[in-house]
Amino acid sequence: xxxxxxxxxxxxxxxxxxxxxxxxxxxxxxxxxxxxxxxxxxxxxxxxxxxxxxxxxxxxxxxxxxxxxxxxxxxxxxxxxxxxxxxxxxxxxxxxxxxxxxxxxxxxxxxxxxxxxxxxxxxxxxxxxxxxxxxxxxxxxxxxxxxxxxxxxxxxxxxxxxxxxxxxxxxxxxxxxxxxxxxxxxxxxxxxxxxxxxxxxxxxxxxxxxxxxxxxxxxxxxxxxxxxxxxxxxxxxxxxxxxxxxxxxxxxxxxxxxxxxxxxxxxxxxxxxxxxxxxxxxxxxxxxxxxxxxxxxxxxxxxxxxxxxxxxxxxxxxxxxxxxxxxxxxxxxxxxxxxxxxxxxxxxxxxxxxxxxxxxxxxxxxxxxxxxxxx
Length: 375
Hints:
InterPro entries: FPG_cat, FPG_N, H2TH_FPG, Ribosomal_uS13-like_H2TH, SAP_dom, SAP_dom_sf, Znf_DNA_glyclase/AP_lyase
Distance between the termini: 61 Å
GO biological process, one term: base-excision repair
Helix content: 25-40%
CATH topology of the largest domain: Helicase, Ruva Protein, domain 3
Strand order of the largest sheet: 1-6-7-5
Number of strands: 11
Number of domains: 3
EC number: 4.2.99.18
CATH architecture of the largest domain: Orthogonal Bundle
Protein name: DNA-(apurinic or apyrimidinic site) lyase
Strand content: 5-15%
Organism: Hanusia phi
């Protein structure tokens, strides 16, 4: 069905990879497939698994390992790493029209009952089963795996070798934490109350356990919901922002305390922190913090209401033009020009005034009701 197909979205962080593995176990594992490589970039690998039974699949962090063959013989493993935009889609000819393959489709699996699977990914390689065990030794602890060993992770983080590295660096190192990416890094450390620039040598056992517990909790929620949702619904409602999905990632202000979120470059990726909720280490004077600049994210989607609240930069060009039409202003120009035009209209002051008027009106009604009850 279409909903089944949509459960395999573009990959970004580890929870999505585990979701794909779960769908494959349910729909594909145990079946024998005809395999081909539409774009020719996995020709030998497709030939190696053609006509073999899909035996099993394992997810480790952002990596998938699909095994083909029989237990009695040597299994062949297909290693998949999606990168930022890979996809392993599944279709059913009996219920829907299968879209044509594209120039990025490296593997096509077809079953006689009508199931078709298209794979596009940054890395797709076919190896002997021993390759999987070699890779497992290199990859770190996956918060979503039952065989994860957090105590081993804590020992490695506390070692002299890691003492001079920041936890913000370590949590993105897949040889330590297998699964979290940039969005989860920001939110896990925020919820744990640990600043990303804190050196591993300064972290205590309690802080490490909080970081691991938040990693498990948030990635598990992502696996169950299919979305990177890090704010507890009850807290979002209490804060008056029921649509809030993340605290500080790609945000100008902290969703919890309202302080200005800061960001900086850490090995080519933008790192986020709230200086109030995450104590800044004394050595951080060497880090060049700057007010976080928001952008329209296609990986971490938000409601229109939330995006409007956080800044015009998060709106699409179409949404900006709709706002300009309501303001009676010209809709021509680049996105930066549209934003400047809206900002120049004083719309934010007007909206804030309208919100305050509504609050005053609501408060007035409440007082009238209380007076009536007293009478």
